[in-house]
Amino acid sequence: MSFVQNLTLFVLSAFVGYEIITKIPTNLHTPLMSGANAISGITLLGSVVVAGSGATELATVLGFLAVVMATINVVGGYLVSHFMLDQFSSRGQN
Amino acid sequence: MPGIIGGLPDAVLQLAYLVAGVLFIQGLRDMTHPRTATRGNAISSLGMFFAVVITVLWFEILSPYLLAAGLLVGGAIGAWLAVRVETTEMPQLVGLFNGFGGGASALVAGAELIDTASVLGTGSSLPLGLTSTAAIAGIIGAVTFWGSLVAAGKLHGVVGDSPVSQTTGHVLKVVFLAAAILGGLFLVVQPEQFGNSPLASWIPSYWFLIAAASILGVFLVVPIGGADMPVVIALLNSYSGLAAATTGFVLDNTVLIIAGTLVGASGLILTLIMCESMNRSLTNVLFGGLGTDADTSDMADIYEGNITETSPEEVVMLLETARRVVLVPGYGMAVGQAQHAVAELAELLEANDVEVEFGIHPVAGRMPGHMNALLAEADVPYDKMRELEEVNPTFSRTDVVIVTGANDVVNPSANTDESSPIAGMPVLNVTEAQSVIVNKRSLSPGFSGIPNPLFAKDNTSMLFGDAKESMQALVNEYKERTS
């Protein structure tokens, strides 16, 4: 894909993000942040591709480290959000 | 050689990424209401799982065991940290996770450079699109990694204040930012004098860039004080998203761009909300810092002879006749882990037909929504937590306000004193209530370093002591009197 196509995607996503995030109430800002955090671990995909292609040893090592770091981010972020949101919904209905 | 399902047309992979992107967006949409938020988080994680599985199956993986090991190790560490964390340590954990995301992006960009160079062979120059986006991903990623580590360290109390003066700090920031950009330019231009070997032509410049950006990240965050951490944490969150999006440009990966940009937008919006709540610009938070030299003579003038001290017994007497009570928590509640005692007090009051609400300032605590998360942990229903604009008009018909562990966010000089460093900052106007109880350890100033005239008001009484002990004392006393 061309740079311009990527840029188009970037700009449109920014608008979608702005529209949704501004609607999220203050109450949920902490879980939002750790959830968003987990999403930023999407860079894991990049590490999988790079660690996997393994054209050189150095790239494989760097890729492996990146996989570990990104997985910590993804798994930890989603779990923390989940525990927190559970606390919101358990008593939130009254 | 393609992976297991890699024989399929490329459009299949792109469609799978589209599905993952839609799941992320739907997950965030569900976060707009507490009732659907848990589902939203699950949908978003499903999107992540789907994207990872597809990628693993698609691409040729030379070392599937190595990859599995990486996923297992990372997953175990992440889960372990998430399970054992105390709610009070949440801000530093969120900061830490954030840093790992940024660090991973920087490493991926570096590895991709090495791979491409080895494929293209000696002497050929790397494509411009790759080098420029890799440079950006490297700088943002390294700044995010080190900045987040420092922020987490500061929140955890293991990193102190800046060892250099503010001016020296500014100079160092400019120097290292310039160095990082220079490294990026060398990477992009790949000048002849670096030789024709692919290693010499760009590896030094990429690692040089990473080193400079790392030092920059440290110097950016070290001078920033504790109460400004909500802004820093939110901003670093935004950076880690942007780092992922830029990595998406490096790898031509659509779902990376979509997801990274969503996170970037989310972090940026939170950052701006935090800044607005302090009536300060982002530049001021990052580079200015408040004057922390407390004017002690000034303080004595205001407080001298005007401070009324109270006891749990007296407070409970007030509460017995009250019909509407507003509780205002601050960072002190988090430090003292007083949220359960506060929640119990609220419950007791409600059981006696007192209207109870929580007034929460957007920057109370150390991360966006910090107070809300703590109170939710203590089973306070979210519809009892009121934002600043909602609760301010109600203070005039409130009988008792109990402020626990908050200071600057209830300082009336923000409204009245134009020369005050916090002038114009939206504050909770608690003085409009019949009586105000301020629970604090001492009269010492808050983060802004200025005295708080609220403490000297006629309708304010000070309940000195640790937040948890004081709130527990109120709970016990109230139980005794009303049973």
Give the arrangement of secondary structure elements.
The complex is a heterodimer of chains A (94) and B (483).
Chain A: H1 3-21, H2 29-40, H3 43-53, H4 57-91
Chain B: H1 10-30, H2 34-58, H3 64-84, H4 90-120, H5 128-156, H6 166-189, H7 198-221, H8 229-251, H9 254-278, H10 282-288, H11 296-303, H12 312-321, E1 324-329, H13 331-335, H14 339-351, E2 355-360, H15 370-377, E3 385-387, H16 388-391, E4 400-404, H17 413-416, E5 435-440, E6 460-464, H18 467-482
Parallel strand pairs in B: 1-2, 1-4, 2-3, 4-5, 5-6
Helix pairs in contact in B: 1-2, 1-9, 4-5, 4-7, 4-8, 5-6, 5-7, 5-8, 6-7, 8-9, 12-18, 14-18
Describe this structure in words.
The complex is a heterodimer of chains A (94) and B (483). Chain A is mostly helical. Chain A has one domain. Helix content of chain A is 82%, strand content 0%. In chain A, helix 2 runs antiparallel to helix 4 and helix 3 (43-53) runs antiparallel to helix 4. The model of chain A has no long low-confidence stretch (mean pLDDT 84). Chain B is built from 18 helices and six strands. Chain B has a six-stranded parallel sheet with strand order 3-2-1-4-5-6. Chain B is elongated. The chains are: A mainly alpha (94), B alpha/beta (483). Chains A and B meet through helix 1, helix 2, helix 3 and helix 4 of A and helix 1, helix 2, helix 3, helix 4 and helix 8 of B.
